[in-house]
Amino acid sequence: MSFVSAKNLIARFYEVSEEGKQQLVATPINDLSIDINQGDFVAILGHNGSGKSTFAKHLNALLLPSEGTVLIDGKDTKDESKLWDIRQDVGLVFQNPDNQIIGATVEEDVAFGPENIGVSTKGIHERVNEALDTVDMQKYRFRDPKDLSGGQKQRVAIAGIMAMRTKCIVMDEPTAMLDPVGRRDVINMAHKLNKERGVTVILITHYMEEVIDADKLFIMDRGNLVMQGTPREIFCQVDKMKELRLDVPQATEVAYKLKKKGYNIRTDILTMDELADEIKAIRG
Fold this sequence. Notes:
Layout: E1 4-16, E2 22-36, E3 41-46, H1 52-58, E4 67-72, E5 75-76, H2 83-89, E6 90-93, H3 106-116, H4 121-134, H5 150-163, E7 168-172, H6 180-197, E8 200-204, E9 216-221, E10 224-229, H7 231-235, H8 238-243, H9 250-260, H10 272-283
Parallel strand pairs: 3-8, 3-9, 6-7, 7-8
Antiparallel strand pairs: 1-2, 1-4, 4-5, 9-10
């Protein structure tokens, strides 16, 4: 059974007019169906306004479907009796870590979640230690989070989710505010959690190089799922991606341009190392 299963999901946003009537202002998701297996590392891509972040908020019931269903490990997000379980299963990491860090120290912030779900003092200590070790932030445990770099703050945000021992982490553009080093560290951390701890990772990003190692990509456009497949299957469709106003990895773009110039080169190249090897093979 899929860990995340969205079926015919429709999300509508309304506002109340001056006359007190509800008026439809947007339909950011329109008849979306997606299945994600436990332990997968998947990425959701799409241009601004495609519905990615709206979908993310449905995964731990911050938003509820206008129509259709979202099941998390078999639990319906519209079932109020399952809300607490769903939010312990799925943790969200947002673009700006300052919006979800509330502790006066790193230790306090990571401990906040477990404390609020009734974990014992001993259990909280164990969870905080484990989480800080995993994200390599143990030496900063008594620091004020506001004194940390952007990448370090995101590690603290991830540690806070880990301490809840969620089965799934949804990362909504977690590297958008970071420099290249910070982006690399956060993505490497996500892969570490996925590979070593079996945590399902759902990554929303605009950086194509961040998703070349994902198990599967879902491409959204105007609230619809328009493409899905492995990174190689998706990125080799360069013309289609450009139609959707999306980039492809730099190495893929170079291979695409060489192919158009008549060179006999693979079009499913994802990395610069692969590109270098392919060029060497062409040159003999």
